[in-house]
Specification:
With about 850 residues, the protein is an alpha+beta fold. The protein is built from 17 helices and 34 strands. The radius of gyration is 28 Å and the shape is globular.
């Protein structure tokens, strides 16, 4: 029973930041002559392209930009290339990683930073996009000649030597690039087949430092392109802080008769367009049929106080007995009038889980109300029954305004305001592959700007599972054997099961779904794909995130998912399973949308949306716990969000059985032992949350929380007292360390994360009988959430007053050092021993921490 209070962790002092280990690879052409030939041909073609563009600009300046965008595809990334490009007049508009390459087969050799040839000759391609004037062809030729002759490089241009060493291709950004992975042709075909007369799309423009007038000129040129096709521009938005300029367009279907050749459309060939894609959605089509049950008619109390948790979602059934008195709605866009009560599905489910939890558990309601800002309306169209963003505005603008409605009017330093925003939404058409979505960038900026924590669902994947087994063999297989086949299928299909935007956000807590419990028993012809608690559910999207950041961050119960054999048989003897959708069991029990004639109902749900809602509920419960703690008066509104982020994640843990199952799976598929932990985290994140551990301590488990703002170059020191009760004992002890931060970002740079905040490994661990840690140290420090557990059972002898010194460090990452100031972070540390050991550690640690004096940092 966690009946002892959490402790606050005084900051003891400062020190210069620690240095961070790590480094990249060096890549060289095995034959300089071959690389020279490759480059000579491409630069000659580039010069021809620029000459053609010069003539086109003279003939029709209206339709051609004086700048073009060049794509530099490199076999690896190059340090400081952005600055070197600027030296010769090239502006980097964007960059991202490409695919893994067999460097040896492409004529390159990969070395470590110590000039040692690496055993694995694998490299990750890197894409640079640069804005170039028509004189760039001449400049490329000049730089190439310096490289070819091995001349001395002018000051500030040395990175160009490394660029020419590893260039694969140089080419203009073209119409095919603007449509790649957009799914636009398939979406428009479905709309045409359904008899629609018009189709919509979004276009994102290159974002360059320029005046609002210049952007308006770009928009007007694009508008004229559409009007010549009989189309129109419905809406536009500019969000400078994330480098976004986009429009919502509409075309008559008569303008797109050739769906196989969209790249020839005039507006897609417009040079100022970065990409054209489907309209942003919020969720997959839903099935509202299925068994549900009556809900109690009587309301059960009323919440009090200012909301600290908000939901951006669909319109809820506000007067449902499970919600009435606990949900406030800010309907700034008047969406309630467009949402009949019987179709308010998703918003009601999410609000119900946050307020009540899974209704089968009989948990207490939250003490404070939850505020809902609707952004979705129900609609049935050619994609099915769904809830979507209003069709007359860009979704990113609708979302942006919703967040500002929740946070912009409040003083950031106030504790009595919204600190957590639940986003159980995900664009099924925007699976994370390489580039950050504008939606994720917006969340990152808003999170840092307003010191608010976003809890985001990882996204659902209801693709069929293809099992390498015959039907007859499947019918005699055990649940454990079926689970093994399912995991094999998921692993082989992992590229199509990636996170859905905006789940790649680095400041958010991204939540995947664990199998969970949930009521419901199998009936004839039904199959449960995963039976082991602690494993990610089959529908839960897998990571990692941008630049291999560990994502999802945590798992939470999402409800069990049953399958059945597909009605469409396999052609190669395999068995296909399809998910059983609907509102019946199994799953988590929630308030259901229902009409007044039906009366209040409850139904079952499952998915990462539900898992995110339960995680948000935990954030609200932690806040209720913190506000009455001794020392809570020092916790300002600036730090509440990051403290909640740390404590939510601090409870996460890999189950031993789930870890073992995934190790077996990954080893079977050839993952090297040194990469197993990183690969497991793509399925499990940091593990499943354990809510009771975030709300209190026990005699054998003590948790302390520290928080502050930190600047570039600083190290903040904390001292965790080591209890004498652990002297010379061989009971297992676990030290869990979590550091969370909310950081600024640089939206159009590859590094993206503006500041890096991390905790160095304490130097006292080995002398206290603790091991090296349960996580891959590189992967847990790539993002804004570091979580590691050190355990051991070796007896150790130590003197009274022994402490573990923890140092939280900060360095500039993509930003300049002088720009990295006042970065909020939180540190959570737990020491625990098995309850059965009877060893009591809480009181000794608590007495020492309370005696420490908090140090003021200036």
């Amino acid at each position: 029973m966690a009946d002892l209070p959490l402790l606050f962790f005084p900051l003891r002092g400062t020190a210069p930041r620690k240095k961070k280990r790590g480094g990249g690879n060096l890549l060289f052409p095995k034959s300089r002559a071959s690389q020279e030939t490759r480059l000579s041909d491409q630069i000659a073609q580039l010069e021809q392209d620029f000459e053609q563009r010069r003539l086109a600009l003279q003939a029709d300046p209206e339709n051609t930009s004086p700048e073009t965008v060049l794509v530099l595809e490199l076999a690896t990334s190059v340090t400081n290339f952005g600055k070197a490009a600027a030296k010769v007049g090239l502006n980097i508009l964007g960059e991202w990683d490409g695919d893994e390459l067999a460097a040896d087969a492409l004529g390159f050799a990969v070395y470590s930073k110590k000039d040692k040839l690496k055993r694995e000759q694998i490299s990750t391609a890197h894409i640079y996009l640069t804005a170039a004037t028509l004189a760039a062809g001449i400049e490329f030729r000049r730089l190439f000649e310096i490289w070819r002759r091995a001349d001395s490089w002018p000051p500030g241009t040395t990175p160009w030597r490394d660029v020419f060493n590893c260039i694969l291709r140089i080419r203009p950004w073209g119409p095919e690039d603007r449509l790649r992975d957009s799914g636009l042709a398939q979406d428009w075909k479905a709309a045409v087949d359904a008899g629609l007369q018009t189709v919509q799309f979004e276009a994102d423009f290159w974002f360059r430092p320029q005046s609002a007038i210049s952007r308006e000129q770009v928009t007007e040129k694009f508008r004229r392109h559409l009007e010549r096709l009989g189309g129109s521009l419905r809406h536009q938005a500019v969000i400078e802080e994330i480098g976004y300029h986009g429009v919502l367009g509409e075309l008559p279907v008569t303008a797109i008769s050739d769906l196989e050749n969209l790249a020839q459309l005039e507006f897609i060939r417009f040079e100022e367009v970065f990409e054209v894609h489907r309209v942003t959605q919020a969720a997959e089509p839903r099935t509202v049929e299925g068994a549900d049950i009556l809900a109690p008619v009587a309301e059960s109390g009323r919440a009090n106080g200012v909301p600290v948790v908000a939901v951006i979602d669909g319109v809820p059934v506000q007067n449902h007995p499970d919600l009435a008195g606990y949900v406030n709605v800010i309907d700034a866009d008047n969406l309630e009038s467009q949402a009949p009560a019987s179709e308010r599905v998703h918003g009601s489910q999410i609000a119900s889980l946050i307020v009540n939890g899974d209704l089968t558990q009989g948990s207490s309601k939250l003490r404070r109300p939850v505020v809902v800002r609707p952004v979705l309306i129900p609609e049935t169209n050619y994609r099915g029954s769904l809830e979507r963003f209003p069709p007359d505005r860009l979704a990113i603008d609708t979302f942006h305004r919703a967040v500002l409605d929740l946070v912009a009017r409040e003083q950031r330093s106030s504790r009595e305001r919204v600190h957590v925003i639940n986003v159980s939404l995900g664009d099924p058409d925007r699976m994370f592959l390489r580039r950050m979505s504008a939606w994720a960038k917006l969340i990152d900026w808003l999170s840092f700007r307003h010191r608010v924590l976003f809890v985001v669902s990882a996204g659902n994947c209801l693709r069929k599972l293809t099992l390498a087994i015959t039907e007859s063999a499947l019918s005699s297989s055990s649940p454990e054997q079926i689970q093994t086949l399912v995991l094999d299928s998921m692993y082989l299909d992992r590229r199509n099961r990636r996170l859905l935007a905006p789940a790649e956000s680095i400041n958010a807590v991204t939540v995947g779904a664990a199998r969970g419990e949930g009521i419901g028993n199998l009936v004839a012809q039904q199959i449960e794909s995963v039976t082991l608690n602690g494993l990610s559910a089959t529908y839960s999207a897998v990571g990692g995130g941008y630049r291999n950041i560990l994502k999802p961050d945590v798992l939470a119960p999402g409800g069990r998912q049953f399958f059945r054999k597909s009605l469409v048989g396999s052609t190669n003897g395999d068995v296909s399973l399809e998910a059983i959708d609907g509102q019946g069991p199994p799953g988590l029990l929630v308030a259901a949308a229902s009409s007044p004639a039906q009366g209040p109902r409850r139904s079952h749900t499952r998915g990462t949306s539900a898992a995110a809602a339960l995680t948000t509920r935990l954030g609200a419960q932690i806040f209720e716990t913190l506000e009455v703690l001794r020392g809570a008066e020092n916790l300002s509104g600036d730090h509440v969000a990051v403290v909640l982020k740390a404590l939510i994640s601090h409870t996460a843990n890999w189950s031993e059985n789930a870890e073992a199952e995934l190790k077996t799976l990954l080893s079977r598929h050839g993952v090297m032992p040194t990469k197993l932990k990183d690969a497991i985290s793509r399925f499990l994140g940091h593990g499943c949350i354990r809510p009771d551990r975030a709300l209190g301590c026990t005699d054998g488990r003590v948790t302390a929380i520290g928080f502050a703002d930190i600047n570039d170059g600083e190290g903040h020191l904390y001292e965790f007292p080591w209890p004498t009760a652990l002297r010379a004992v061989t009971e297992e002890r676990r030290l869990i360390i979590t550091v969370a931060s909310l950081v600024p970002t640089t939206p159009n740079r590859y590094v993206y994360r503006g500041a890096d905040v991390w905790a160095a490994k304490p130097g006292e661990l080995a002398s206290l009988g603790l091991g090296s840690g349960d996580r891959d140290q590189h992967s847990v420090q790539r993002g804004t959430l570091q979580h590691t557990c050190y355990s051991g059972n070796r007896a150790s002898d130590f003197s009274d007053g022994t402490k573990v010194t923890l140092q939280v460090n900060c360095r500039a990452d993509s930003m300049e050092p002088g720009e990295v100031r006042n970065i909020p972070y939180a540190l959570a540390v737990t020491l625990e021993v098995p309850e059965a050991s009877g060893i009591q550690i809480y009181q000794e640690v608590a007495l020492t921490l309370r005696a420490q004096t908090r140090v003021a940092i200036r």
